[in-house]
Specification:
Strand content of chain B: over 45%
Helix content of chain B: under 10%
Number of helices of chain A: 14
Structural class of chain A: alpha+beta
Largest interface: A-B, 45 and 55 residues
Mean pLDDT of chain A: 84
Oligomer: heterodimer
Shape of chain A: globular
Radius of gyration of chain A: 26 Å
Number of strands of chain B: 18
Number of helices of chain B: 1
Structural class of chain B: mainly beta
Low-confidence stretches of chain A: 82-89, 596-616
Distance between the termini of chain A: 51 Å
Number of strands of chain A: 33
Radius of gyration of chain B: 18 Å
Order of helices and strands of chain B: EEEEEEEEEEEEEEEEEHE
Largest sheet of chain A: 8 strands, mixed
Largest sheet of chain B: 7 strands, antiparallel
Shape of chain B: globular
């Protein structure tokens, strides 16, 4: 980006190649300084937060400066100067709830050009029956050559491909070219300089927003899809047409004082949208809590139309008040599920689930976080799933995240924006339709090693289980795969033999599809799971998991929370080159950034305070009486 | 002196007093990561007023930015800036601006001092001028931090510990000693505190009368709200 008229952005290209859900994106930008003095040029890219940066380079006057991935602590020590002047993590910042921003600036001599290249990779997750590629483009000026090119290779075959962008006008819409064959799709968007213009003769650009490609693959009954490439395998499991398993869900609702205002209103709004989506064969309960615990009914209730309507009326009466006793509320919810199970009040083949909606810090009853986690873990006895929704910037997300993972569930932050109720509903949609329980994907011990997690507590409708591993040798005659799980009516059990996919036959016209993608997919998935273990695993597991994740991050050049990318950039004149460090943000760092952002306060300032509107951030003062 | 912690996102404020012997120096902000420290020295009235209640105020602040190599001493008499071995002294009687590579300073005659330390913190010091022949009271200073988001997460001190927000909840509203000041129970930092609804004054817009800020008052020198006790924040010198 540049606001200088003398700097010309020559080209911006985004090249995204997806091979079996593994997306490899290269963003390249070339700018030319036409002035007779040096100019500072900024390169800013927003990438999905689930992605890992793998490479960055700048080419200036035929010299290439390449980022090097190093162990975070070593990089910090080595580049103490950058750290002490506050530049740690300076290249990567949180940007909204889905993205993070990588930015670097460099001074370019008169009449010379610079080429920036950033590469990142991610495994696309199937959510609500589709994969999503999100590319954010915000060039600050018109670009001579602008192109977004997405190639998707899915050996299973594509069931549909859809592309749209938030900035597409009627004029730009026909410029999105989509070519879809059975196993391959290409989507390109390449407006000319004139087509980018906001209006004839003006310099503003229409290109500003998200370019989104959504697709799904053909799925077949049975084992799912197993691909073997270059000594690694990956197994995608998401069988179609399975009946959903009924669920028994207890909503545990924090109504403490800090939920007051928008959070409480959004909670009510979300519950009013979620409750009618319950299936008639489901059972549900509502427990609201502050320092005291209040249950709608003593037992779970069948989700008949009448009961749901009564529950909706009850939800409308929930108001905020008092402190936060998460421990007692959780134990009451667990106890209710256990009691109803023991009393045979719930269907035998059904899943027990608790959804906790809270904004935070327990401060009444048991307030020690690890004690609460231990109490909940021991009370559930591994027999129910816990999903936590954390509201607001101050929520102790790590507490909820660990507690969920210890109980076969997951946590999600709910951002207090206008669509918080939609976020809640979206999360509920993801987890509301379990298809299989306790799924085990089994591979022959003598044929594979370093297999990623292969046991999953549940498979939800619209999602997908992915397992990857390394093959011990190339003798694949005995590569038998078995999947077992618990379905609605009966046990799910399929067996089959994996076969090697010959990519040259499948895609004969492609001379190169980044060939080691299966290995990188395996490495990405392994690192993600090791990072999770290093957060929520048993204490002896944590150190091992961290060490292994670091080793693999370095080996595969991924910028993860354990590594840093060190970028050396040239300085003008006699100044020595200086180094910058790009880090991967953790959820905690994202939260800190959000707390510190003055805008966040500005948005939160209520209009009723006469002078608060003029203040972008809170004031802390000491003065005389 | 009275402390006010404004929480605009909750449309609320917390307040407490710290009463200590005149001469005591208290740490207000301490951020070893960015090298920012603010200490203030307390002074008392000239003599005990007829109501028997001695007021205490801040009369001198020491501000250090180690990384930038800047030291500021602000008293009720003058403002001294020390950087790279050079000292610049300004008087409250002047309106003056100083723009340096690391620090910007603006003095509004006999009223306020605005200091911006590059990339770390912005604050305002107010001068409360009292009639010099007043039998009891004397000039004093107020310290207001306006922008703290660049300080590190480990920032601490009597004010600094609140820069990254505080989780609290208030329940059990009940009549207090004074009809317009009800009592309540506050849950904060894992403790249960008795608090009183009241107000304190923000003097930035009206240096003479101030503006009332409704707040939850925490008794006993902020006990339970501040980490530790108030004596933990006593330091031996201004710098």
């Amino acid at each position: 980006s540049t606001n200088e008229a003398t700097v010309e952005v020559h080209s911006v290209t985004v090249d995204c190649t997806v091979t079996s859900r593994f997306a490899h994106t290269v963003m390249t930008s070339v700018a030319l300084n036409k002035a007779n003095t040096s100019k500072e040029i900024f390169f800013e890219v927003e990438l999905p937060k689930s992605a890992f940066i793998t490479n960055f380079s700048m080419e200036i006057e035929e010299k290439v400066y390449v980022g090097v991935v190093k162990e975070k602590e070593k990089a910090k020590k080595q580049y103490q100067k950058a750290v002490s002047s506050g530049q740690t993590a300076g290249l990567v910042k949180a940007s909204g709830r889905k993205m993070e921003k990588f930015s670097v600036s460099v001074s370019i001599a008169a009449e010379s050009n610079v080429t920036f290249v950033l590469t990142y990779e991610e495994l696309l997750q199937r959510k609500l029956g589709q994969y999503e590629i999100l590319i954010r483009v915000k060039p600050k000026s018109l670009v001579q050559q602008f192109q977004i090119l997405t190639n998707i290779y899915e050996p299973q075959g594509l069931s549909y491909v859809d592309a749209h962008a938030t900035f597409l006008s009627n004029e730009l819409l026909p410029l999105v070219e989509k070519t879809v064959s059975d196993k391959k799709a290409q989507i390109s968007f390449s407006p000319t300089l004139e087509q980018q213009r906001k209006c004839p003769g003006c310099d503003g650009t229409l290109i500003d927003g998200d370019f989104i490609v959504k697709y799904d693959v053909n799925r077949q009954q049975g084992l799912g899809e197993i691909q073997i490439v270059n000594g690694h395998f990956v197994h995608f499991f998401a069988p179609p047409d399975l009946p959903r398993v009924p669920k028994n869900v207890v909503f545990v609702i924090d109504r403490s004082g800090s939920m007051y205002g928008r959070k409480m209103a959004q909670t009510r709004e979300a519950l009013l949208k979620i409750l009618p989506d319950l299936h008639e064969e489901d059972y549900f309960a509502l427990i609201q809590f502050d320092t005291s615990i209040l249950s709608w009914k003593d037992s779970l209730t069948k989700a008949t139309k009448e009961n749901v309507a009564a529950a909706m009326n009850y939800v409308k009466t929930i108001v905020d008040n008092g402190g936060t006793d998460i421990n007692a509320a959780m134990l009451q919810a667990i106890n209710m599920l256990v009691k109803d199970r023991q009393g045979n009040l719930l269907p035998e083949r059904s899943i027990d689930m608790i959804i906790l909606l809270t904004d935070g810090m327990p401060n009444s009853g048991v307030s020690d976080i690890s004690t609460i986690q231990e109490n909940v873990r021991s009370a559930t006895g591994g027999n129910m799933s816990l999903f936590c929704l954390g509201f607001g910037n101050d929520v102790d997300y790590n507490f909820l995240d660990v507690m969920s993972k210890q109980n076969k569930g997951l946590a999600r932050r709910i951002f207090e924006a206008s669509d918080a109720a939609l976020q809640l509903q979206g999360f509920y949609d993801e987890v509301s339709s379990p298809l299989l329980l306790e799924i085990d994907l089994q591979y022959p011990d003598n044929a594979v090693d370093y297999v990623t997690t292969s046991h999953f507590p549940q498979l939800f409708n619209g999602s997908e289980i992915v397992v990857a591993g390394r093959l011990m040798d190339n003798d694949l005659d005995n590569f038998l795969v078995e999947v077992v799980g618990q379905g609605f009516e009966e046990k799910f059990n399929v067996q089959g033999q994996a076969t090697v996919v010959d990519w040259n036959v499948m895609y004969p016209d492609e001379s190169y599809i980044f060939g080691d993608f299966t290995e990188r997919l395996w490495a990405y998935l392994t690192i993600q799971q090791l990072l999770q273990k290093s957060e929520s695993g048993a204490s002896d597991e944590k150190a091992n998991a961290t060490a292994k994740a670091l080793e693999m991050s370095l080996q595969y050049s991924f910028v993860t929370p354990l590594t840093s990318m060190v970028v050396t950039k040239p300085e003008e004149g006699d100044e020595p080159d200086s180094s910058f460090i790009a880090d991967k943000l953790t959820e905690e760092q994202r939260q800190q950034a959000e707390r510190g952002r003055p805008m966040a306060f500005a948005q939160a300032v209520p209009a009723s305070r006469s002078y608060a509107q003029a203040l972008p951030s809170p004031v802390y003062l000491v003065d005389g009486d | 002196p009275h402390f006010v912690i404004e929480l605009p996102e909750r449309n609320d404020s917390l307040c407490f007093n710290i009463n200590n012997a005149p001469g005591t120096i208290l740490n207000l902000v301490r951020d070893p990561e960015t090298g920012v420290f603010v200490n203030g020295q307390i002074i008392g009235d000239k003599k005990i007023p007829p109501n028997g209640k001695m007021n205490t105020y801040f009369w001198r602040f020491g501000i250090i930015h180690q990384t930038l190599g800047v030291r500021l001493q602000v008293t009720t008499q003058y403002i001294s800036i020390l950087q790279d071995g050079k000292e610049v002294k300004l008087l409250w009687a002047d309106t003056a601006s100083l723009k340096g590579p690391n620090v910007d300073i603006h003095v509004t005659k006999d009223r306020s001092l605005t200091v911006t330390l590059k990339g770390s913190v912005k604050f305002v010091i107010l001068l409360h001028k009292v009639w010099k022949n007043h039998p009891y009271h004397r000039d004093y200073l107020g310290f207001y931090t306006l922008d703290t988001h660049l300080l590190s997460p480990s920032v601490h001190g009597l004010l600094g510990q609140f820069y990254h927000g505080i989780e609290y909840e208030v329940t059990g509203l009940r009549p207090g000693e004074s009809p317009e000041k009800p009592d309540a129970t506050m849950f904060a930092k894992g403790q249960e505190l008795n608090v009183t609804r009241g107000w304190q004054r923000d003097f930035r817009r009206d240096i003479k009368n101030g503006e009332n800020v409704p707040c939850w008052f925490i008794h006993n020198n902020g006990s339970g709200l501040i980490d530790g006790v108030e004596t933990d924040y006593i330091v031996s010198g201004l710098f």
